[in-house]
Amino acid sequence: MAFFLIDPSRAGDVAVAIFGDPWPGNLVADDYAGYNAIHPARRQSCLAHLMTKAKDLAQQIRLLPVPQQDPKALTFCERVREFLAGCCGLGHARNTGAISVAAAQRQTPRLQKRLRVICRDPLADPAVENLRQRLIDPQRSGAQLFTFLTVNGMPPTNNQAEQSLRLPVIFRKICFGNRSALGAATLSINLSLLTTAKRQNRDPLEFLKTLLLRGPTAAQPLLYRNPLPDTS
Description:
Blueprint: H1 12-19, E1 23-29, E2 40-45, H2 47-62, H3 71-96, H4 101-105, H5 108-118, H6 126-136, H7 147-150, H8 159-175, H9 181-199, H10 204-214, H11 216-219
Helix pairs in contact: 2-3, 9-10
């Protein structure tokens, strides 16, 4: 299922309005602070965002004159990228059956030990040191890096959400956003329905045509593989 909400605020109470607090399910998200308000049962930090952060910091260091480049910070960024890429590869191996779920779970202590070694020494570069602190601080990403190994099927990144947002973001840039609250609500509903249909491997256009011509009762079987029970 996909759920889109266009809201003028990015505050935590928007996330609470969607999920509730606490949220009894699992959450895979980046470091956006608004998610800190919902307290999910389990949370996984997006490793792809952390890899991108390390890559960007390394590029910034390389743009400096050679005498000003910090080789320790550059090495740290490269080691973090390599380490997190390996974690993502482990998740892929688990999901494809190349290794068992139990074998993947047993890797967690080894990964935690390796991360401690990578993050052992403080760094002079403030931005890179902030990344190091983020990786080891249990109040930030430190306690959420390997949750995906304890929950079968949980991805190590939020790439699905990012890919789902790509076309709506392009649309927003082209049309300069929604002109009214009603327009924002309408687009949110349409995106939710059409993306859900795609994730259920249903024909979005056939669903939409049936919804408009025959109503929601007739359209629901075209949206879900297993139609939701009638709670009216």
